[in-house]
UniProtKB/TrEMBL annotation:
CDD domains: ABC_NrtD_SsuB_transporters. One of its GO terms (molecular function) is ATP binding. Gene3D superfamilies: P-loop containing nucleotide triphosphate hydrolases (3.40.50.300). PANTHER family: ALIPHATIC SULFONATES IMPORT ATP-BINDING PROTEIN SSUB 2, TAURINE IMPORT ATP-BINDING PROTEIN-RELATED. The keyword Metal-binding does not apply. Residues 5-227 form the ABC transporter domain. This is ABC transporter ATP-binding protein. The keyword Nucleotide-binding applies. InterPro entries: AAA+_ATPase, ABC_transporter-like_ATP-bd, ABC_transporter-like_CS, ABC_transporter_ATP-bind, P-loop_NTPase. Keywords: ATP-binding, Nucleotide-binding, Translocase, Transport. Belongs to the ABC transporter superfamily.
Length: 242
């Protein structure tokens, strides 16, 4: 098994409603994959399964046994909302780990990495939405994961901030050699960030298309190749039942 994560023949139901049917994907070392699809198609559910937060499914979710996931899960998660604890400082939110003493040097490094050097003593209420999500990304990296799972983390910020955060994720993934699995509704975001775009659709959902993005980073957002791939993704999405 060369992949960091491998999900095989995933079936997921809620009571009598089947949400995912026969979904299989593998995340390779250093790879960025986007999960794209209409609302309610099970993208976030699939991410929760990958994170180990949902164990009630049929199929297999494997982590590479030959790779060092350390004492934790080897997986960091960033949610749609920052979910910061308002009574803790920025630094305390990043280093919060089941009451264990935080690695202060590593927290300071992460603050520099996400562009918040000197803001460690601030409270969440003093941050903009984009800054709060930078804290959430730093917290996702605190455990030094090999895989970072992102559940629409930029959907609540303005377009310019969104682009800055996208570029930040690309930089951090390369810097720390992290694989990324991203849930998004944004076509531009999917093709700009990813090595592969996996499109879910149908009822129940299954993989209906997979697009390779064979362009090196950094990428030009205006590149014709990205526009063509966006058109392919849009066609695959439009063909799905509403």
């Amino acid at each position: 098994m060369s992949a960091l994560l491998r999900m095989s023949n995933i079936h997921k139901s809620f009571a009598e409603l089947t949400v995912l049917e026969d979904v299989s994907l593998a995340l390779a070392p250093g790879e960025i994959i986007s999960l794209l699809g209409p609302s309610g198609c099970g993208k976030s559910t699939l991410l929760r399964i990958a994170a180990g937060l949902d164990t009630h499914f049929h199929g297999a979710m494997e982590r590479n046994p030959l790779l060092d996931f350390g004492t934790g899960s080897g997986i960091g998660v960033v949610f749609q909302e920052p979910r910061l604890m308002p009574w803790l400082s920025v630094a305390e939110n990043i280093g919060f780990a089941d009451g264990r003493r935080a690695d202060e040097r590593w927290v300071r490094q992460l603050l520099r990495d996400v562009g918040l050097e000197g803001r460690g003593d601030a409270l969440p209420k003093q941050l903009s939405g984009g800054m709060a999500q930078r804290v959430a990304i730093a917290r996702g990296l605190y455990g030094r994961p090999q895989v970072l799972l992102l559940d629409e983390p930029f959907s609540a910020v303005d377009a310019f901030t969104r682009m800055k955060l996208q570029d930040l994720v690309i930089k951090l993934a390369a810097q720390y050699e992290i694989s990324v699995l991203l849930v998004t509704h944004d076509l531009d975001e999917a093709v700009y960030l990813s090595d592969r775009v996996i499109i879910l659709g149908g009822r129940p959902s299954r993989i209906v298309a997979e697009l390779d993005v064979p362009l090196a980073q950094p990428r030009d957002r205006r590149a014709a190749e990205l526009a063509l791939l966006k058109g392919e993704a849009l066609t695959a999405l439009y063909q799905q039942p509403r």
